[in-house]
Amino acid sequence: MKKSLQQRLAILSDAAKYDASCASSGTVKRDSVASGGLGSTEGAGICHAYAPDGRCISLLKILLTNFCIFDCAYCINRSSSNVERARFTPEEVVWLTLEFYRRNYIEGLFLSSGIIRSPDHTMGEMVRVARELRTVHGFRGYIHLKSIPDAAPELIEEAGLYADRLSLNIELPTDAGIGRFAPEKRPDGIRRAMGDLRRKIEAADDPTLQTKRRKRFVPGGQSTQMIVGADGADDATILKTSARLYGSYGLKRVYYSAFSPIPDASRALPLIKPPLVREHRLYQADWLYRFYGFGVDEITSGTGGMLDLDMDPKLAWALANRDAFPMNVNRAERERLLRVPGLGTKTVDAILSSRRFRRLRLEDLARLGVSLRKVRAFIEAEGWTPRRLADRADLKTLFARKPEQLSLL
Amino acid sequence: MHTIPLVGRGDFSEWRDAARALAAAGISPREADWRICGVEHELFDAVAPPQLPKPDAAAPPLTVPPAFLPLAEAVVCHTEPGRFHMLYRLLWRLQSDRRLLELTADKDVAWARLLAKNVHRDSHKMTAFVRFKEIAGETAGRRRFFAWFEPSHFVVARTAPFFRRRFADMDWIIATPNGTASWDGETLIFDTRPGENPGHGDPTDELWRTYYASIFNPARLKLKAMQAEMPKKYWRNLPEADLIPEMIANAEANVRAMAERAASDPPLFHYRLQEAAQPLSQIVPAGAGTIEAVREEARHCTRCPLHCTATQTVFGEGPQDASVMMVGEQPGDQEDLAGRPFVGPAGKVFDAVLKEAGIPRPSLYLTNAVKHFKYEPRGKRRIHQKPDRGEIDHCRWWLAKEVELVKPRLIVAMGATALYALSGEQRPLNQVRGKPIAMQGDMVLYPTIHPSYLLRLPNEAERQRQHALFVEDMLMVGHLKETMG
Fold it and tell me: For the domain B291-484, what is the CATH code?
């Protein structure tokens, strides 16, 4: 018996939930005022709901189908799994997207798919959904499409005209890991596809001779995801791979997804609670790398390859480099202040702006929203000098969280 | 003391008009008593318009820094009773201290910013958590929707334009206790009076609830993270929210059930797929002994670890019967992405020099000593790193194949790496540059600089001198090409 739309929605969203990406931000601004149609994107993304797993729900994240010819051990949709299979027609996905959008449940669509028949066929079906949404229904909401490596360049090019973002998941940080757990995936193929996309994005961004207007092509850029904790790769390896991907392919984001048990799981993989704290630390380290001027080596050196689960990587770095502190909030330059645990980029900018008018005291910092408990040991302010850090053997205990061990399920 | 009664439901102009008048009359914040009377007074007109003092004609016109207006507009929408007084104090202080707003650590400024932040957040949450219900029956071909929402502050008027920009092709009404906004395709209407909740339903909510329950991963409960972003005060009007308690309660059992269910035998189609994939995985060897066959082989090279970090092998290109082979160091950022040698900035310099020397690029066989890009990621860029001897030695295997198959008469080594790869000797380039060296098999090796050297010279005069020398070298290469070829 054919499954109802509701049953298939349940199956194909369940199958999509292991993809962490949900961003709907960072694309061009557009709205429906002039067209009188439907949809807008305004720079900042909007999370329309949150599930009890703490993840935001911004997009209708579904698969076109969860049939797949690949057999990737970590994936719920691998060909050797006995999960229930289903598929949507492109028209059904278009209808769901529009009706959900009209009720303000979502910002747009994140469409992915199992590989069926061939990469071209799969990509072609996804492109069809995006094309109908944009050209037939004048939909101006957000569209994120998965790009399939080895799909024909024309298809990727067409996808880029309709989609705000394209993504291609590398899933595992090393080629050896991919070879072991995703035998049909080819890491060099993934890299080449990312490189091609970067070139296409850059080419579209170049004003042409005829017009100064830039072609709109994947304005939200490309992203990828790595699974954390499925293979044996340590944090240093994962972060090095991220740095490489950011530098090489201009990725907007690398998502980290703690490997979590899937129905009908492969015996090759550990059945543990998802390492959520580890995932969180990786995101923090990723931020330090991208916005705080830290090198991956700085973050991971002295950690034995794994970030400390008990404290954030910036604090860990500060404790390991005590001679760099205290930093004077009234004098230190921006790059130095960014290294103080407890000071974020916005706070540092507020400090720089405020200190032009007067010398800042601890109370001033508190008003900027700084947690004094966190920063006071690391900074000097007007009327405040901390005890010398190197003298304090107990410093670490001041910040340590209660230990919590990952347990077997 | 001057008493200023305001409706206080998010209308900026009522505060602005009063504040202007007070300031013009030179009334200090201490002499002004701001009162909030609520919407009833507006309805029944029970309160006379505020008795404002006559402006002091000699007073300078009231001006504020541009950042004050958006800040004040947001603060006025807050429900904090002291907001009008605080804003007036800020306005007063701004007259003598124009840069006050930049002092984010100031008490008044910090408070104003905090209130503004609350309002922005409430407005943002409104864009997120309004849920439209479809009302049966279209008007003039337009579908109709209704939403009931309960914001914490007076944000309906400032948030309504967002819904107009987004939902232009449908009629909608958003009713809240703090006012109602509606759109009919032509005008956006706002009413400050409290709206009513008629309790509409919508069958599509069922699909949305299915989606909400299915996208949730029970193995990763993070309730605090959820509630921080979706506070309970909003749950009442979210069709999906009443599922939450059950989802939480069943999460652990669901995960345990998943773990206990041992991996079952794969379905039949899995075996069929695996069988079908077999022949594909065997690489079909192309015609051996051609450059194409070697190129294909090199695509899968794993002789050194560089293949894991580079995008692809950048093999040589050019006619297999070329009389001149030019060897560089390694592909750079652009070459790595394009899969072709000499297409980046150094390649552009190289092309220009070739043109000056009158050598057509397509007549040359161009390649590199090392076929994979070696780099260090630094933020959004990749910093080129020199290949080490081990990497050059590994890759020499491919270079030797290229030399063997192309059989050039003349090989131009551009840079020290290429010279080492071709001759096995590490010598300072300036000692050997431009001096042809005889090689085995009647070939001549001609050492020169790498074109990227010209890009690295900071001194313009020196750069021009080196450029001219490089052109001379290429003229010599062109000459040798003619005489030998």
Answer: 3.40.470.10
